[in-house]
Amino acid sequence: GIEDEDDWLEKRLLNIEQSDHHSVAPGEKGSLMNETELAVLREQFQLAPFIAALGIELDSIGLGECVAALELQPRHLQQNGVVHAGVQATMADHTAGAAASTLVDDGSHVMTAEFKISLLRAARGERLICRSKVLKPGNRLSFVESEVFCVSAGVEVLVAKASATMVVLAARRE
Predict the structure, then answer these.
(1) Tens of pLDDT, residues 7-38
(2) CA 100 vs CA 8, 113, 155, 166: distances in Å
(3) Which residues pair with 133 in a beta bridge?
(4) How crowded is residue 23: how many other Cβ atoms within 10 Å of its Cβ?
(5) How far, in Å, are 18, 136, 163, 168 from residue 171 at the CA level?
(6) Do 164 and 92 touch, CB atoms closer than 8 A?
(7) CA 5, 166, 37 angle in degrees (round to 5)?
(8) Which residues have CB under 8 Å from 121's CB, separation 6+?
């Protein structure tokens, strides 16, 4: 139940605090994840062929958080010049999954079980930034929120908000 998941999270955070970890922002030192874990997460972020084809890139990743960016190209746009909803949804979903993956045990991974996006306004600009944060982690399900911003002339505007439920899949035993 919920108490078991809360106990699991407390143990996971305690294990992270007791080990030799550092922050995830490039070049910073702190107390979140070690370099090996970060390198694996960065590599995994780009492994999905669809994500790589769209050009979505990992900006930063931390415990329960992830930021991704996309330099907008004509291929990302609808016929009327606004960013396609599918591009925004894909970015929100993949970034949410990356945020959730920072809180699972080694060898486990996450997949989207449920996803909802609200498109708040037309996205017109040079770049998209997605910030995702785990609101309720768990050892079976995690609930994540993503916000997608469009940057135009240096100004960020919130264009979409998404929520996702991620299922945690345990590592296969050989």
Answers:
(1) 555 555 444 444 433 333 433 333 356 677 77
(2) 14, 12, 28, 7
(3) 65, 145
(4) 16
(5) 23, 21, 25, 10
(6) yes
(7) 80
(8) 157, 158, 159
